[in-house]
Amino acid sequence: MYEVERNEAGTTAPISSEQKDRRPWLKKVVGKKLLLPLLLPPAIWLFMFLFMPYFNLFTYSFWKPGPFDVIKEFNLSNYTKFFTATTGGQAPYKVLLDTLELAVMVTVCTVLISFPLAYYINFKVTRMKQVVYMLVIIPLWVSYIVRAYSWKIILGTNGILNSALIWLGVTHEPLDIFLYSKISVIIGMVHIYTPFVLMPIYTALEQIPRNLMEASKDLGANRWQTFSHVVLPLSLPGMIAGATFALVLSMGDFLAPQLLGGPNSSTMIANIVQQQFGTSNNWPYGSAIGIIILLLVLVILEVTGRAEKRYSTLDSSQVRGSR
Asked: Whole-model pTM?
């Protein structure tokens, strides 16, 4: 019925079971009081710099552009214009589909490059593994513009690639097929976004229990069977996370296509948004396109999030069952 508790004076006093039952509740109340001051600053920050800008963008999308300022009259013309108007001979929604296609190509290329590289660093490199890993992600420390311009120098008419081909005797004059094309845009964006894909894949591979691979070998599985039935399923959450990074970032990129793409490949949906807020000064139309892109990105995040959660749950149950 009663227990003994030592108070601040050092003496002991009996406590009842009813008082003991109230302790968890008191701890929760105290914990909430301490947690609220910690959560308030980030909540204010998210509200001011994330929720409010999106709300402002959503509001602008229903207004009309004026000669000097926007006209605050509710209308849906900005959204209908997205599906009916033409930009450079092509409807904006078709530009969005082309952007999505290019982003998918960039995503596939980055995954195909990142996964073997992450696998090699994680399972094959035994000495100075962290140094090799840092060398792979070190491009993230370099400015985005510098990385984009570096490919312009490499692929240009008088660039490193053409100079090497002339020196090797492959061609006698510079070739202009490398730069200002869709291929150059994909190459530049793959180089820029590969570290974003490699990091989650490497993390997923690093968390794979080595005893599962050893058990697979003990049961008679060869390397390909171990890879396809153990390594690949357990690395799927990291691959999905990395592919999501590459897909979403590629869709919102407008600088790399502008620097590396020609007249037929430099127009992406982000370039149209940048033009509306810049030279065209049509903020309502740019806001409407931004909201459409945001909705598409949210759908992509929802789909990939469900897939990542599904495979993560499956992997956890597999690991628990192996134990």
From this structure: 0.81
